Amino acid sequence: MKYILFFFTTITFGQVQKFIPIDDDTHEFIEEVDYTLYYNKKPIYSFKTSKDTITFLPKDTFFDSIVFSKKFYRELGLNKTELKNVVQLKKIVYELNEVIVPNTKPNEIIIGEKSRFIKRFSTPISKDLNYGLLFQKEDLQKKLIKRLLFHVEKVKYKTKYKIKFFAAKEIPTPLSSQKSLDINDLLFESPTLILEKGIKNDVEVELESYDIDTRNGDIFVCLELQDYYDENENVIVPLPKETTKLKFQLSKLTYYYAKTYDIYTRESSTEMTNINAMVIEDFAYMFLKKPHKSTLVAPAIILFATKEE
Predict the structure, then answer these.
(1) What would the 3-class secondary structure string for the chain be?
(2) Where in the chain is the domain with CATH 2.60.40?
(3) pLDDT tens, 32-70?
């Protein structure tokens, strides 16, 4: 699927009307949506929207309403005067590869979120400590970690990686409600794990046998890339588009921390920033409103635990 960013600020509507359909939740482009133009409640023209760009209605077509339909989306009817630059469609049925569907075992507790994937935020697994999730002490107390579940886009090359848990502490930022992250001792490091070529979607790792101590504070969880390998087991450096990417999901929490990138100096920050908290504060300060839910995301990582006996 293709994702396209359009700027409509300079578009004017003359004889030709134009628009793009997007998903109401994720704000991602939807290709080939069926639409029908009506006049006096009678259909006069039917077609599909573009698969990769703006859709232009036929020039000088006289209509008073339009209906959009797409499999898995709610049908949308609009009067001509209601047709805007961007048409938002609401998804009502989700496919398995679009949402997290954890297979919970008896007596297990989910720590983290299970939501809808948002593909444009998929991010390569890194050798550096660039991003991860901070699980709070309150959610971890009196629990034994059993499994970890994460989700990846289709793996192009054999990928070796590790899972790491760090003791961490949130640090308030002066003159702001934002927080940075102080990462301390390494509490757990998995053996080298492998993602074989062709694997996609959910990846489950058993952690019960390691008896990870998560009782004494907040825990920062991340994946660390080791190397990529070709079919002859040679270490390689793939093109950016061929790297192994961790899926992201819509998030209602503020537990996603990452290093930020300065577009002017082209350098990464040395500290981890609470990304969603930063976005929420920026929107409140600059626009006096909350950000759209598609703006708040987090890596699709879930912990499974049981209560201590």
Answers:
(1) CCCCCCCCCCCCCCCCCEEEEEECCCCCECCCCEEEEEECCEEEEEEECCCCCCEECCCCCCCCEEEEECCCECCEEEEHHHCCCEEEECECCCCHHHECCCCCCCCCEEECCCCEECHHHCEECECCCCEEEEECHHHHCCEEEEEEEEEECCCCCEEEEEEEEEEEEEEECCCCCCEEEEEEEEEEECCCEEECCCCCEEEEEECHHHCCCCCCCCEEEEEEEEEEECCCCCEECCCHHHCCEECEEECCCCCEEEEEEECCCCEEEEEEEEHHHHHHHHHHHHHCCCCCHHHCEEECEEEEEEECC
(2) 18-89
(3) 999 999 999 999 999 999 998 999 998 888 999 999 999
Could you tell me the fold of the domain covering 18-89? Immunoglobulin-like (2.60.40)
- Most confident listed range (122-126, 177-181, 265-269, 271-275): 122-126
What Rg value do the Cα atoms of the chain yield, rounded?
A: 23
Please count the other Cβ atoms lying within 10 Å of the Cβ belonging to residue 119: 14
Q: Which residues contact 276 (CB under 8 A, 6 or more apart)?
A: 251, 253, 254, 255, 256, 296, 297, 298
Report the distance separating Cα 163 and Cα 192, nearest Å: 8
Mark residue 72 as left, alpha or beta (left: phi above 0; alpha: psi -120 to 50; beta: remaining): left
Q: Which of 290, 225, 276 is nearest to 248 (CA)?
A: 276
Measured between alpha carbons, how far is residue 95 from residues 99, 100, 104, 165, 300 in Å? Answer: 7, 10, 19, 31, 16
pTM here? 0.79
